[in-house]
Design goal:
The protein is α+β, with helices and mostly antiparallel strands. Helix content is 24%, strand content 29%. The N terminus is likely disordered.
């Protein structure tokens, strides 16, 4: 019965249930070292933002390979937001999904992703690169953390709770206003990001 809260959350989200097929329930992901080193390199992050902008207004969303083994992992509540967590075992590639947090708050949906971004890591010279991002209902895409290896579930949960609660500041946030000729940068943390 340890998954009962997750099942109740998934059943209680009719919009999510109608739009997406139910995921199988999975056990905890394989153990990884907690305390993944944080990266603050601007170059690979700006490369990802540039790739996003090059897709154009109609396709302004983070792209990644279709997950092959995504499963429901956990659920929790942060203030007035319900969060359902899914996990997909890490697969190397240009851009692949590792974790997804679906957030429902007062009828508004947002999504947080931990993506492995092999292309940006290789071109940006960082090696393995994991990016924690949020896509909000208003179309804003924000990146909050960069890791040099897969972070553990406990540190990710704490970071996601901080983002959902509105206590975290993004490293970079972008959007593409309707009808504009290009995307725009809404936030760039010049203090934390190294050129």
């Amino acid at each position: 019965m340890k998954y009962l809260p997750l099942l109740l959350l998934l059943v209680g989200l009719p919009a999510a249930r109608a739009a997406e097929p139910a995921l199988p329930i999975c056990d905890a992901p394989p153990a990884v070292q907690e305390g993944a080193p944080r990266l603050f390199e601007a170059q690979p992050l700006m490369l990802v933002a540039h790739l996003l902008e090059s897709q154009g207004e109609a396709d302004f969303r983070l792209k990644y390979a279709a997950p092959q083994a995504e499963c429901a992992l956990d659920a929790f509540v942060v203030g007035d937001a319900e969060v359902a967590v899914s996990y997909n075992p890490w697969v190397k590639g240009p851009s692949t999904l590792v974790y997804r947090w679906r957030v429902l708050r007062a009828g508004q949906r947002s999504e947080l992703l931990l993506l492995y971004h092999g292309l940006a890591g290789a071109l940006g010279g960082t090696g393995p690169l994991f990016l924690l991002s949020e896509t909000r209902a208003d179309g804003v895409i924000a990146w909050y953390a960069m890791y040099g290896h897969e972070p553990g579930p406990a540190e990710l949960r704490a970071q996601v709770q901080s983002i959902v609660a509105g206590r975290a500041e993004p490293l970079l946030a972008v959007r593409w206003p309707a009808g504009a000729k290009e995307g725009e940068i809404l936030a760039y943390d010049a203090v934390r990001l190294k050129p």
